[in-house]
Amino acid sequence: MAEKGLFRRFRSGLLKTAQTLGMGRLFGLRKLDTDFLNELEEAFIAADLGPMLAGELVEELGSRNRSGEIAGVEQAKAWLRAELARQLMPAGAPAPAAALTPAAVLAPVAAASKPAVWFFLGVNGSGKTTAVGRIAHRLQGEGRSVLLAAGDTFRAAAGAQLEIWAERTGSAIVRHKEGGDPAAVIFDAYDAAKNRGTDVLLVDTAGRLHNKKNLMAECEKMFRVLAKRGGQAAEVFLVLDAATGQNAVQQALLFREVAPLTGIILTKLDGTAKGGIAFRLVRETGLPIRYAGLGEGMEDIEPFNAAAFVDAILPEGDLVAAR
């Protein structure tokens, strides 16, 4: 039942992308011919999978059809579902059937000495502070104690926004005055979390657009201060807005150069028809997607599941009936 609920949430959150792909129409009563393959490629590109991946998928599908390995649209759909799920798993990651579950995502918390420190990086407008709050809520629901660190001291509303999330989730918070040193916030927050025996310290960071040199210096200082207190980052998430498309890929490539990223949080999937950007992010950065933002509510963030993602855009059964 839990798995069915997860698949429903992904289907709801990726409805716009699924409509752009139009797989129900494509796979209806169509023959697996050249017209079908051309339309399939166009649909993949429209959903932001990128021309390279779209072309590779269609070329391989056509090749398998010509060899007799894939004989019709139903076999084509089964192959595509498996291949798309594989594309969402970076090299060295578990097979799609073992996609990250809530327990797997939370495993670092149990394994690490308290507190496990999770950093959230990303530019303004990506949904970073909201992601921090929603994950705090999720962790609290799993019985974890959480402390929030307002490391974005440059944006006037950032600390206030995080305080609201602290109140909503029942989390403690450490916040300094506007314009202060983010590293000092981390220093105090880590000590507070350590002294209280807190399970997880979630660090919101400034979302300014930096040049590479300044961004690297700021990241290095945060991690250095944490290390001096005897801590280390268990997770370094990059929060990206799915609607920004190729710009999200460029942000990921920049941040990957300056910070030890452990994964991506892809937000606002419900508001875009281009959820296929997930494939490009995994393919071009080699990073796993760890959480997906699927709606506007407090509960609408899910540990990423490749099988559920693929089912949402290319369901096994009828698209309309499945919804």
List keywords for this structure.
323 residues, alpha/beta, Four Helix Bundle (Hemerythrin (Met), subunit A), Rossmann fold, eight-stranded mixed sheet, disordered C terminus
A few lines on this structure:
By secondary structure, the chain is of the alpha/beta class.
If you had to describe this structure to a student in words, what would you say it looks like?
The protein has 323 residues and is α/β, with parallel strands linked by helices. The chain folds into 2 domains: 2-95 and 314-322, SRP54, nucleotide-binding domain (Four Helix Bundle (Hemerythrin (Met), subunit A)); 100-304, P-loop containing nucleotide triphosphate hydrolases (Rossmann fold, 3-Layer(aba) Sandwich), CATH 3.40.50. The chain contains 15 helices and 8 strands. Strand 5, helix 12 (246-258) and strand 6 form a beta-alpha-beta unit. Mean pLDDT is 87; it is low at 94-105, 108-112 and 318-323.
Strand order of the largest sheet: 3-2-4-1-5-6-7-8
| CATH domain class name of the largest domain | Alpha Beta
Q: How can the largest sheet be summarized?
A: 8 strands, mixed
Helical content (DSSP H or I, runs of 4+): 40-55%
- The end-to-end span amounts to 16 Å
SS field, number of helical segments = 15
Which range does the strand content fall in?
A: 5-15%
CATH architecture of the largest domain: 3-Layer(aba) Sandwich
The CATH superfamily of the largest domain is identified as P-loop containing nucleotide triphosphate hydrolases
Strand segment count? 8
Q: Gyration radius, to the nearest Å?
A: 21 Å
Unreliable stretches, pLDDT < 50, 5 or more residues? 94-105, 108-112, 318-323
Silhouette: elongated
- CATH topology-level fold name of the largest domain: Rossmann fold
Domain tally:
2
What integer is the average pLDDT?
A: 87
Structural class: alpha/beta
